[in-house]
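Task: sequence design from structure.
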C-alpha cells in the first residue's frame, strides 16, 4: 500500500499500543477475513474492492500520522507490513480461486515472502532486526495494490465495459509490480548475505 511504517533514524520509537496509527492498522487487519468472505463466499466483488481501496487509504493515513506526530511504535512497525502482506496474500488467494490469476504467478510472489521470512532468524542470530524496505519494494507493493482491484473487477466471469477497461490496466500493473517485487526480494537477500559475511570476518 503506502510507505511502510519505518521510523527515521532519529525518531523515538515507543512501546505504546493504543496509538491512532496502530488502531488504523488493527482495523485494516480486521478487514482481511471480511475481504475473503466477500470474494470467496458471497462474490460481492464491489464491496471487496471498496474494502481494498479503504485499506490502502488507511495505510497511507497511518504512515502520514506517525510521521507528522512522531507516533512511531514497535507494534506499529510490526502491524503495518503484516497488514500489507496479508492483503496481498488474501487477494492472491481470491484471484487464483476465481481464475483471475495463474497459480504459478501467485506462488512466485508468496515464495518470495517466505524466502524473506527465512532471512529474519538469520538476521536475528547476527544481532540485526528486519532490514529497512528498499524503495523498489515500496514501488512493487504500490503497483500490486493498484493492480488487485482492477483484476478483481476484470475477473473472467465479468464481461462488462468496466472489466474491458480494467483488464489490460490490471495486468500491466500486476506484471510491473511482480517483477519489482521479485527484484526487491533479490536485493534484500543480497543485503542479508553481505551483513552475515561482514559479521563472520
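Answer:
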Amino acid at each position: 500500500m503506502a510507505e511502510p511504517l519505518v521510523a527515521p533514524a532519529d525518531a523515538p520509537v515507543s512501546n505504546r499500543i493504543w496509538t491512532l496509527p496502530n488502531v488504523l492498522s488493527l482495523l485494516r487487519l480486521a478487514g482481511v477475513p471480511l475481504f475473503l468472505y466477500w470474494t470467496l463466499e458471497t462474490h460481492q466483488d464491489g464491496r471487496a474492492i471498496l474494502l481494498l481501496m479503504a485499506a490502502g487509504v488507511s495505510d497511507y493515513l497511518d504512515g502520514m500520522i506517525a510521521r507528522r506526530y512522531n507516533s512511531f511504535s514497535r507494534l506499529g512497525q510490526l502491524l503495518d507490513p503484516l497488514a500489507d502482506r496479508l492483503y496481498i496474500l488474501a487477494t492472491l488467494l481470491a484471484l487464483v480461486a476465481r481464475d483471475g490469476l495463474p497459480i504459478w504467478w501467485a506462488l512466485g510472489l508468496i515464495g518470495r515472502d517466505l524466502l524473506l521470512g527465512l532471512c529474519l532468524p538469520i538476521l536475528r542470530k547476527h544481532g540485526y532486526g528486519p532490514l529497512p524496505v528498499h524503495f523498489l519494494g515500496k514501488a512493487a507493493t504500490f503497483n500490486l495494490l493498484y493492480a488487485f482491484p482492477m483484476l478483481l473487477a476484470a475477473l473472467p466471469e465479468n464481461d462488462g465495459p468496466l472489466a474491458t477497461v480494467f483488464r489490460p490496466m490490471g495486468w500491466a500493473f500486476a506484471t510491473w509490480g511482480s517483477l519489482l517485487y521479485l527484484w526487491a526480494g533479490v536485493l534484500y537477500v543480497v543485503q542479508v548475505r553481505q551483513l552475515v559475511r561482514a559479521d563472520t570476518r
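The longest helix spans residues 161-199.
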